[in-house]
Amino acid sequence: MKQLVLEDGTVFVGEGFGSERESIGEVVFNTGMSGYQEVISDPSYYGQLITFTYPLIGNYGINRDDFETVNPGVFGVIVKEHCDFPSNFRNEETIDEFLKAKNIPGISDIDTRKLTKIIRQHGTMKAMITSTDRPVSEVLHILEATPLLNDQVKQVSTVKPYVVPGRGERIVLVDYGMKHGILREFTKRDCHVTVVPYHTSSEEILRLKPDGVMLSNGPGDPKDVPEAIQTIRELIGQIPIFGICLGHQLIALASDADTSKMKFGHRGINQPVKDLDTGRTYITSQNHGYAVNLHSLEQTELRLSQVSLNDNSVEGLKHKTHPVFSVQYHPESSPGPEDTAHLFDEFLTMIDHHQKTMKEDSQCLSVQI
Asked: What residues does L-glutamine bind to (predicted)?
């Protein structure tokens, strides 16, 4: 038997599956009815204990194609029931076998509805998955003495640059915890992608002569990566930039806006977002615990372009003068709807327009000289 102990003293007792190791992390919940493999392998969940609100997880197994990273960063999985006998033509192993192989602990047979209500009421909090043999008082002492991580991006970013070759536009993709879905969208469009570590300087990025820069998703507080904020600040105005999730928040901070932690965040595949430029509403896939503060945009060169229809939080930004835009959600989905994959095409169109403008300006300058 295992127990999940929250820092407020709440205890859930259930059956263990996956790895037998103990784990401490921040408890969050995901509302998706499917896509658990992509969620578990999303680097943005590094350091967290995922609670799935859907009552049955693992019913279609684990397959080779739906991973968002090779080595998942999630610290634990919490479910009402996990399936030991999945049924799907792509199934290759059970969720229990997968979590064992990746040394990720899981706990099942607990009231995930009650747990989710606690998180919604009190916000995300630290918790520990451990054996029922360990006294709750001891667990609470450990939780009190263990701070939450603040180096998540460093842990999930690539160590060295690498190239995914293509014949199209040259994109530098800054990896803050990149999902493979972003790479898939660029390779579909035959882009030549160079993936670089999170701490790569603006000088190093520009030396690669990219046509555009993509800022990826990633875990944690955007203020924990000040080097990334400085790099983006130096890149704005020099090259087209597109930011997703953490990349979106970093663009805001680099433009002198502010961010703050949400009570329990947005994590699911059915989040409605309204585009203020077109009036259209999209259903989006989201995973974030921080958001850009709307009022902080007033003294910046950014404008609000999209909002959440659930809580009116900031979901999209566009720079007023430079080719820079960002979204809080995941247009590459995985899991979730593909309503907003067109944003990658818009980014490439922005790059093409920027190049034409630069060429025209250069020709005008030559004529004047």
From this structure: 44, 218, 220, 246, 249, 287, 289-290
